[in-house]
Amino acid sequence: MKIVCLDADTLGDIDLSKFNDFGEFVTYGITSDSQRLERLKDADIVLTNKVIIDKYIMDNTNLKLICVTATGTNNIDMEYAKTKGIAVKNVAGYSTNAVVQQVFASLFYLTNKMRYYDDWVKSGEWIKSPIFTNVSKNIYEINPKRFGVIGLGTIGLQVARIAKAFGCDVVYYSTSGKNNSTEFPSVSLDALLKTCDIVSIHCALNDKTKNLIDTNELEKLKDGAIIMNFGRGGIVNETALSKILDEREIYAALDVLEKEPMSADNPFIKVKNRDRFVITPHIAWATYDARVKLMDLVYKNIQDFLKA
Questions:
Q1: Per residue in 132-176, pLDDT tens?
Q2: Residue 43 scores a pLDDT above 90
Q3: Do residues 83 and 174 both lie within one domain?
Q4: Number of domains composing the chain
Q5: Is 247 one of the annotated active-site residues of the chain?
Q6: What EC number(s) are associated with this protein in UniProt (predicted)?
Q7: Which of these is catalytic: 36, 39, 146, 232?
Q8: CA-CA distance, 222 to 8, in Å (whole number)?
Q9: Which residues, 6+ apart, have CB-to-CB distance to 128 below 8 Å?
């Protein structure tokens, strides 16, 4: 078998040498659309995170298995793969702990003013201080704040449980209507936005959730509220959010944007109140531990396919 990994750079420093167990293994850091066909022309199995595998590629190669090194399969033409008899295997559940950890890291970065106090100490200001502490920027406890989770899937549920452990009053809104919980009360989106001090988004992006949080919804947030998006870019309208960050005391934490990598004209670039938001470059899924687990599961997917 020949196995080709098209975008190994998205996996970081994970050792991929074990894939040589299955035959010839070729890896590329990144692959452009124009390079796909040449690199896959004699491949049996492809590993891809974000590189698109569409009808054109399937018709002009002899692929037998497409391994997505992620959970989402929106970069694969799933229906056409089925008609061609090409197996598609993704990986689910590998990054739950990683995402949940990043949610609370970002939340505490904002509530505890970590950027300000870290900069203050490292600039030498503490050396000059006449007192032992600095309380010039208020920090706040999340106990017993009202914490709203939008999307109570596997990740959203774990976020809710940890928020409860910190003493928060947790409620949720299910965007699909399918996730029902006996642990936490379900509320309408309107009620969640109006009453919660912290809002954490963990739903999928689809026609129903595109721009789910727009100007009208953001206006319902309480003064001092924190809104976080760890679902998908496009769920929160970025223009509307960037505007309200300068108009009201609203805070935001984002790990996903509608266009990634971030574009030069992204509206967050022009926000004046830069201490009111934190943006990380889609890293919540990518702890070292999660990436090791991911590739172990991809390896197993190939094993299972070859045994079938």
A1: 999 999 999 999 999 999 999 999 999 999 999 999 999 999 999
A2: yes
A3: no
A4: 2
A5: no
A6: 1.-.-.-, 1.1.1.29
A7: 232
A8: 43
A9: none
